[in-house]
Write a structure and sequence with these properties.
mainly alpha; two-stranded antiparallel sheet; 195 residues
Length: 195
Amino acid sequence: MTDLFEKVSSSQDKATELLNKIANAVPGFDGYFKRKNRKASDKLLRMQIADQLAVYVNKIGDLQQEFVRIGEIAVLDDVETAVTKLQTFVDKIKFASYGYGGVFDTIRVNEDALMALYEFDAALLDKVDEVGHAVDNVETSMSTDGEPASIRHLVSLARELNDLLVAREHVIENTESVADDVVDDSDADSTEMIE
């Protein structure tokens, strides 16, 4: 019995930690526990991420102009690849229908899926911070031996960010299919009752 209690306590502590991390990065984020707040929280998180990345995309645009000014035309294709991948991510996350449909409409949400969603959200926020540092690194390494590596790293992070979003969408889709399969309260042990 003690092992079960420790597992539940550990899971709750992790959820609280992730929720606090996200709430600190996204003012007004209430989480997905309360049904009435789910769509708004999801939209708020996605808009925060999109807005921050838009700032980085604009900064990269300024860096592209600087590369042209100093005659480093050869790096523009790679920098444009990063911009394209980041802008694609921004468009996907910003213009997705908020709440991703059924998962945020259901009364009961699988606790494991909810935890996975919080983990993906926290990872997205971390990755956005990494992109910001990578953009700064490209700027500081301009016209140095570290420039090509800094640009490759930025392109890699942009790719990882898009992959992370796809994985998050898979969690949501799987949660929706689980929620669609729930017919009554007889399987309440596998899901958490959420307001």
